[in-house]
Write a structure and sequence with these properties.
Helix content: over 70%
Distance between the termini: 47 Å
Largest sheet: 2 strands, antiparallel
Oligomer: single chain
Number of strands: 2
Length: about 525
């Protein structure tokens, strides 16, 4: 038995494995599509990420939060579905098939109702179950969806608005105190001074109070940010001080009040960023996330900050508190803990709340990517197990006995030669591709099968050779059945290794048999050969 003979048998065996692996790949892809394994596995992985533990991933709070994520417009836009009766009819059939294993599973009705979540239908908040979900979610989309579902950007806005209202009230009170003390100390018998004080109160009501309310309304409607709002307040105070000074009669008390107003304006509005920091107008991202944990020290500090129940700031914060309490009841403790950890890391890197939110978003993206890498490994292991089962099934159905195949290839020169020739031509046509095109490869192997009779199948001639049965009446030894079972098992394992593996191995063996590829002729050599031939 020489080396070329061994290589021919090896090529024939690998070529048969390649054909059966291509069939297994198509079957597995079909099952994956019908049962929507990728989408199901992705949602389950997100539930585990949210819960922080596999054992807690079926908790109602976890499922409800993940369903809310999947019901978010950003994630809904990732899962595009066709419209129209004829186009959706095949999908409805697939939905029906995919729901059967879930209904028959041990997870029960709760898992069946939460496998892809729900979709809200109409203003009455009616819900209907989803039948499909995205098989892939970008990390950026997930992070944005999670933060929006938790309401973190809105929470930052509301907390900033509450503190800005408090800040505005404080500035108005301080200016009013200056005017009240002036009114108490000045001589009211002086008509000119009394008229000035009346005009000053009118200017304060119109220029300062009125414009401050307009500024707060614009901030509430997101028409202006924090810096812009405070700058507008500073301009209002400047305008008021300017009018105060322009109309002010010569009077010592009026002059002192003007200086107090200027000092007040200078202390508060000269350095806006410093004022924002000292007055804590912009809550840091750690404070915002900690607020979700109702009852925490930071939450209690905010509650104590807004004590006046009649104030607008309290009403704004009370609205936030109600939402936080509802959210806290729904959120799993793991989400609060994980978000708090990420928020602390983000806060150490951030210089502002806006930057903290962006850093927190990137932290969530990184956590999601890390989790999806682990989930991908789990999916690949599960897919490998399914591939092994499919490989064993194909080996039995096709009667692909490795030992019998080797025996036939070693004895039948015609089959061996035909397989080697077809394998060589297929390798040569696909050798230029870095990754083989499995569809094209399947088409070419199907064409090759029309020319070659493979040692497969349950025909009588094949079984007689396989079981070493010379005559019908001759009993078959038990060891022959054991060898056939072993051959199926080996073939099943080989088929599960996948078509790319066998094509790559086939290419290497064919190249060894042909003593390697023909070397590329350089341009100079081609020119020399052409001149010598002339």
């Amino acid at each position: 038995m020489n080396l070329p003979f061994i290589l021919d048998i090896t090529i024939g065996l690998v070529f048969i494995y390649l054909i059966l692996s291509l069939l297994a790949s198509e079957i597995q892809e079909l099952i994956t599509t019908i049962l929507q394994w990728r989408a199901v596995h992705l949602k389950k992985s997100i539930e585990i990420l949210i819960a922080g533990d596999v054992s807690k991933s079926d908790d109602n709070n976890v499922l409800e939060l993940v369903n809310d994520l999947y019901n978010h417009p950003l994630l809904q836009s990732v899962n595009q579905e066709a419209k129209g009766f004829l186009t959706t009819l095949p999908r409805k059939f697939i939905w029906l098939l995919s729901s059967i294993p879930i209904k028959l599973s041990l997870s029960g009705e709760k898992r069946n109702q939460s496998i892809f979540g729900y979709v809200r239908n109409g203003q009455r908040n009616e819900t209907k179950l989803k039948h499909s979900a995205p098989s892939y979610i970008p990390a950026e989309t997930f992070a944005t969806t999670l933060m929006d579902t938790l309401g973190l950007p809105q929470l930052v806005q509301k907390l900033t608005e509450s503190r800005l209202i408090n800040f505005t009230d404080q500035q108005l009170d301080e200016i009013q105190n200056v005017l009240l003390r002036l009114q108490e100390r000045v001589d009211q018998n002086d008509d000119y001074v009394r008229q000035f004080l009346e005009n000053t109160r009118g200017d304060f009501s119109q220029i300062v109070e009125g414009n401050f309310r307009t500024i707060m309304t614009d901030f509430h409607k997101n028409k202006a940010d924090l810096h812009t709002s405070i700058r507008r307040m500073a301009k209002c105070v400047d305008r008021y001080i300017g009018l105060f000074e322009a109309d002010m009669p010569e009077h010592e008390l009026l002059h002192k009040s003007l200086q107090k107003l200027k000092v007040l304006r200078q202390d508060v509005f000269d350095d806006i960023e410093q004022t924002i920091c000292l007055k804590a107008l912009r809550p840091n991202i750690n404070e915002v996330v900690q607020l979700i944990n109702v009852g925490s020290d930071i939450h209690q500090e905010f509650v104590n900050e807004f004590k006046d129940k009649d104030s607008e700031a309290y009403q704004t914060f009370y609205e936030v508190t109600q939402k936080l309490e509802n959210l806290s009841r729904k959120l799993p403790p793991s989400v609060v803990e994980n978000m708090a950890t990420l928020a602390k890391r983000a806060q150490m890197k951030a210089e502002s709340t806006e930057e903290g939110i962006n850093i927190l978003r990137r932290e969530i993206e990184q956590t999601f990517n890390n989790s999806m890498e682990r989930a991908s490994g789990v999916y690949k292991r599960n897919a490998k197990g399914v591939a092994l089962l499919i490989g064993l099934a194909i080996a039995i159905i096709a009667n692909a006995d490795t030992f019998h195949i080797i025996s036939r290839l070693s004895k039948d020169t015609a089959i061996r030669t035909a397989i080697v020739n077809n394998a060589g031509s297929i390798v040569e046509r696909n050798s230029g591709n870095a990754q083989p095109d499995l569809k094209l490869l399947k088409k070419e192997t199907d064409q090759a099968l029309t020319e070659v009779s493979l040692p497969l199948g349950w025909n009588e001639n094949n079984l007689n050779q396989q079981l070493d049965r010379v005559t019908k009446n001759k009993p078959v030894r038990f060891t022959n059945y054991l060898v056939m079972l072993s051959g199926w098992f080996i073939s099943g394992i080989a088929i599960s290794m996948g078509a790319p593996f066998w094509f790559d191995l086939l290419s290497k063996i064919v190249n060894v048999r042909n003593s390697g590829k023909k070397p590329v002729v350089s341009t100079n050599e081609q020119t020399t050969e052409g001149e010598s031939s002339n």
